[in-house]
Amino acid sequence: MPTKSPTCAVCSVDWPERFCRREGGKAPKDCPTLLHKRLAKDAKEELARDPALREFTRQASIQEGEGYGNRDRGYEYVYPLKPRIQETVEFARRMGYERVGLTFCVGLRKEAAVIHGIFASNGLEVVSVMCKTGRAYKDEIGITREQQVDRTAVREIMCNPVFQALVANKHEVQLNVLLGLCVGHDSLFIKYAKAPVTVLAVKDRLLGHSPLTAVYQCDHYYRYLKNPIKEQ
Questions:
Q1: CATH number of 83-201
Q2: Which among 214, 210, 211 has a CA at the least distance from the CA of 225?
Q3: How do the domains of the chain map onto residue ranges?
Q4: I want to staple 180 with a disulfide (CB 3.0 to 4.6 A). Which of 67, 87, 108, 226 is the partner?
């Protein structure tokens, strides 16, 4: 176990001067680019060994670049061109994928129907699987009635991300697109899915599935988040 863990999120070096960005740059003592040169070499060697991995990485980088305009004028002039759903369609095309999985929460079923239509109208075969499919009950995994969302229900259907992943695998999807899965459920899906996974939107029940709103307001209405969080 390394003695120092990376803390890139609070790096003290200005972005243009960072060691990870340019040779001869500055770096704090816990900089992973400085500390883990062997791992950086391993990552490059992995790309060289696996042509499919290298191509996936190459196409992802091309997609990143083509998401901006004004690239000929320099970094300070670039501006975004495309919403993420457009980039998802384009990336699937770049990779030659024909069948995509749309794994979604029942709370976003209306959005899922729209997204299904967008994918289909762009020539993609869509395998869409909702979170409650499989009809497994929460009490089967030890959830008490007090822990249910609806405490008046005798038995409540649980979200079933492992089943969702197995269905996607069974139908041999080439790219999984996640839409609004709960915290933890998304982790389980990613763990059991065979095909690559990308996230179109995450679950945030309070903020209309835009969790960064709380981060942007962390000095104002959500300032309480800077203190130890107590469960409600």
A1: 3.40.50.1860
A2: 214
A3: 31-81, 83-201
A4: 108
SS3 content of the chain, % helix, strand, coil (to 5): 45, 15, 40
Pairing mode of beta strands 175-179, 197-201 = parallel
State the chain's mean pLDDT as an integer.
Answer: 96
- Cα–Cα distance measured from residue 67 to residue 60, given in angstroms and rounded to the nearest whole number: 11
pLDDT tens-digit readout, 184-212: 999 999 999 999 999 999 999 999 999 99
β-pairing verdict for 68-69 and 79-80: antiparallel
The count of other CB atoms within 10 Å of the CB of residue 147 is 11
The residues that bridge with 201 in the sheet, in sequence order, are: 179
Annotate 75-127 with DSSP letters as a single string. Answer: GGG-EE---HHHHHHHHHHHTT--EEEEEE-GGGHHHHHHHHHHHHHTT-EEE
For the chain, the residue count is: 232
Question: Among 47, 18, 45, which residue's Cα sits nearest to residue 33?
Answer: 18
Provide the whole-model pTM.
0.93
Phi, psi of 189 (to 5 degrees): -60, -45
- What is the reported pLDDT for 230? 82
The span from the CA of 80 to the CA of 193, in Å, is: 31
Strands (E) in the chain, as ranges, are 68-69, 79-80, 99-104, 125-130, 175-179, 197-201
The residues that bridge with 102 in the sheet, in sequence order, are 128, 177
The residue behind tokens 């002039």 is: 77
